[in-house]
Amino acid sequence: MLKTLQTNEGRDGAVDGIVRPNELVIDSDYCERAIQLIKSAASEIRLCAYAWKWYDTEPEIGIQQLNVALIHAMKRGVIVKCLVDSEALQTRLRDLGFNARAVHPSRMMHSKVISANHDALIIGSHNLTKRANTVNYEVSIVSYDFEICSQFNNYFDKMWDSRG
């Protein structure tokens, strides 16, 4: 697979050096890669989820390990903001201690994105469900591109603010 290196230009225009290339994440590799991203978050995680399930009775499955990693991130002081597609999921997440909002009921939010620290995100077709990470054919990408991360974070913030 051909990988292209990129420079990481910060907000001040200074180039911080070479960063990791974008990475393709296929099928069941998603949970492991998303958990790594979550664990790397030091300040903030923004998460959009169309379908997100909790598997309390199956702690060994990848998606539940991802769920637990998000809880651990909150416990270590990372701000975790979750935009979801339903009021029911918003309530469930708030009960678990997450800062969660549902998009306006007249529109569907079909995005599947996890952004960490303003400088990395994973985006693609993977829902946060067991089926999406064990049975389905799914593809996502991890990007470290500053501009892409900034564009997503701005988009997220507009949706977030509209549901405040």
Give a structural overview.
It is a single chain. The longest helix is centred in the C-terminal third of the chain and has 17 residues. The strands form two sheets. The protein has a seven-stranded mixed sheet with strand order 3-9-8-7-4-5-6, with helices on both faces. A two-stranded antiparallel sheet has the order 1-2. It starts with 5 loop residues before the first strand and ends with a helix. It is of the alpha+beta class and 164 residues long. It is 31% helix and 26% strand. The protein is built from four helices and nine strands. It has a single domain, classed as Endonuclease Chain A (Endonuclease, Chain A, 2-Layer Sandwich).
Question: Short summary of the structure?
Answer:
With 164 residues, the chain is α+β, with helices and mostly antiparallel strands. It has 4 helices and 9 strands; from the N terminus they run βββαβαβαββββα.
